[in-house]
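Handoff note, outgoing to incoming analyst
You'll be picking up this chain. Sequence as last confirmed:
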Amino acid sequence: LRTATRGYTAFPKDKRSPVPKCSMNRPVTIFIDHLSQPSRAVHWFVRLAGIEFNIHEIRLLKGQHRNPEFAAINPMKQVPVLGEEDGFMLSESHAIMQYLCNSRQDLEATRKLYPIPPRHRALVDRFLHWHHNNLRQSASRLFFNTFNASAFGIPVVEGSSEEAARTLRRALKLMDSWLAESKFLAGAEPTIADLSATCELVQLEAMRFNLNDFAAVEHWLSRMKRMQHYAEVHEAWNKVLPKLQAKWDAEAGAAGGGGESSV
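Most recent structure output, in case you need it:
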C-alpha cells in the first residue's frame, strides 16, 4: 500500500504505550519531501525493506513544514517523520531507519539493511554518526548556499561555502579509503549507511560536482544508482535537476568559470 495525499492530520496519542508493538504487516506513514535527501533515504528504505507505507508530501519550498498541523507532529518542523498507527511519531532519518529495522526484525530485508551482529552493526553506526558532521554538513551547506539561501532570503555567511568545500573533500577522501577496501560502506552488501550517503551525494549533481578524484566513491555511487527502487525514489529530484544545473551553468558562466564544479 503506497499512496500520496495532500492533507495530513496529527496521529492520536497513546499514553499507555509510547513504543508500539509492531508486526511486519503494520503499515506506517512517512512525512517527506522528495527534494530532501533524508526523505528520499527513508522512502528508499521502506521500499527495499518491503514495509507497507503511506506518503504525506510536505513541500518545504512552499513552507508546508511551518504549518501548525505539521508543527504539532514535529515541533522541529523538519522532514522526514515516521508515524505509526497508534500515534508513535519519530523524526530524524537515521533514527527512523534504525527503529524500523529494530521493530521489524521478522523481515529479512531489515536484517540485511541493518545487520544484527554487533561488529557489523557497529560499522553501520560508525558511518551514520560520522555522516552528520562530515558528509551531510558539507554537502548540504554547499547546496543550500548555492540554491536555497536566496529562495528563503537567508544571507550566506562569508567563507562558509569554501569551508564546506574543504570539509566535503576531506569526507570524500575518507569515504574513498573505506570503499577501496569494501564494496559498500559497511561490508559486502548495502546497508542504511549506503542509502543515506547516496541520497546526499546525488544532491551534488546539481552543481555538476565530479568524483574523478575519488574513484572508489564514484564506482560505488554508480552501483547504488542501479539498485532497486532508486529511480522511483529519485523521480521528483530528477525532474528538477536539469533546472538546477541550468542555473548553476548560467551563474558559473557569468562568473567566468566552466560548467563543472570547482569544489
